[in-house]
Fold these 3 entries.
Entry 1:
Amino acid sequence: VNLVIRLIPEKADGKDSEKKLVYLNQRLENQPNLAISATMKELHRMGEIAGKNYNLSIEAFFDGDENKVDKVKQLESTVDYLSDSITKVMIELRGLDLHDKDLVQLGKLHHTIIDLERISDRSEDIAEFALLQMDVGQSMTKDAIDDLTSLTNKVNDIIQLSLDIFSTLDQSKMDSIRQLRRDIEFDKLACMDRHIVRLQKQE
């Protein structure tokens, strides 16, 4: 198996958004014990890029900035590349002499790839809606902006906290995740209700 991995650096270099693997980029045939650790580091890096793309898409939406929309699309392309590349490496990892628990962990990490890619996909959707909003010249009321700002900040909080838990394996923070999820769901419904009221009042 012609696998790739580096003896795992603690942090990626400054070129963290480049279309390349940082932690999975040298041979691993003789170092299967590093497989899971390296994969998790690469996935955390992918998650940071996806989180960055979410924040950039929100900025593009609120600022009406076409340059930021273009950057979102570029980062989405990077996330897609990382998703495909990490998945290919994980398939090859299954050919190594791994413990059963590591094979189970690889299966769980595959779901993580899907979740992280979904964040970046939704970010691209937000950026594309920002373009549509610019094209039709729509504007929002201050109340609408305040509602969406509060909601999007909480979404960013849950993304960042999830990445922190993924990196540190600190399960004690799961209660905070669950509370944030409840808050986001409540705020989403409240935002929709207030938006309907504003439409009815033609605000």
Note: Residues 100-136 form the longest helix (37 residues).
Entry 2:
Amino acid sequence: WPNEETLTLTTRPAASIPGYMYFLNSQTGTFSKVIGGVRGLTTKTNTVGFVGGMDIPLIHKFESGYKAGFHKVNPKGKVLVGYAGMTGEAFKDPTKGKQLGLAQYNSGADIIFHASGSTGLGVFEAARQKGKLAIGVDADQYHEAPGYILTSMIKKVDESVYKTIEKALHGEFKGGVWDLGLKENGVDYVLDDNNRALLSQEV
């Protein structure tokens, strides 16, 4: 649609970008380092877990960022990793999520970060069953398992879209990629009255 301004979320094109297309790319891999750091400062067993949905490069970014942040503040700690599968079904399999979560908790993890869609609901169920903690993704998932969600890594898509609309209204819309990290207020983690007591003062 060359005559229409187009906004695409959470993706980065492989080819050149036409002037009418604008891509918002949330720096989830980079911000996962912050989440890893939060876990590194919070774990009591020095072992944490990561549950991914589909075993693909996009989710590998979450894993690698998380591990890098964790080891930055807890270099002797251990990160357990599991993936739900190799197809799109891996993002909607809570039964598999619970299985992976229980395996990691039973192996010593006291906190698990998931990037697995609704598969993560199974991780939360495992956290409830074992009396451990989990970390949500994309949005605040505290209410999925109150008392068992340490925090959530959130994409602030609403603010990003609002800022893009402002650009269009002021005639500043240009084709390209806008990488949205912590500095740009494109990603963040939840800290409120629900989880404040769960996070250490160091965090």
Note: The mean pLDDT is 82.
Entry 3:
Amino acid sequence: ISEVTAVSTPTNDNTSSYTFISTLPGSISYGGDCDSGNDTAVAGNNTITFDALAEDTYSNCKISVTDDNNSNTSDNLSVNTFTIDTTAPTLSSVTIASNNSVSTLAKTGNVITLSITSSEAIQTPIVLIAGQAATETGDNMTWSAAYTMTNSNTQGPVSLNIVFSDLAGNPGSAVDNTTDGSAVRFDKTVPTLDNVTIASNNT
């Protein structure tokens, strides 16, 4: 017997599937932490679903097939190491700042940057700044999202929204606030002088 399709990892499915091929039909035996109600193999591809497993990493699962005619048992087939993760990720830190000389203020052309740290590795998050798609860069747990403000953006506090999932596909709760209270206000109005006078000190 040999592997055809490995168990996906990481996965949020605690009843993972695995496919192997057998040259002969027979009965399936399981070893290690994995077991299944699928106990009959056919000659050809066999897809089995493991019984429910708890969150953890599994590296000792094995399968063998004993053929129906001669009671010969195959060598043990080691299932690939896989991790089950059913816990939703969280963002441990979210801060916002502008590249304006005053980091809490922004004008047209200023870049707003969100700095994001997650509790575990996540997929590339979907980030909106001022309701617009930001450009994200990161290393799975530490991310930066940037957006350049334009005249079409609405004045006032700059909004944010972060949608994210971990590598196993568990979605986190969308975040629309910073964790430290940081905020940026956008002002695109050109200032004017209401009153200008001129005088001399001549007597």
Note: The chain has a mean pLDDT of 96.
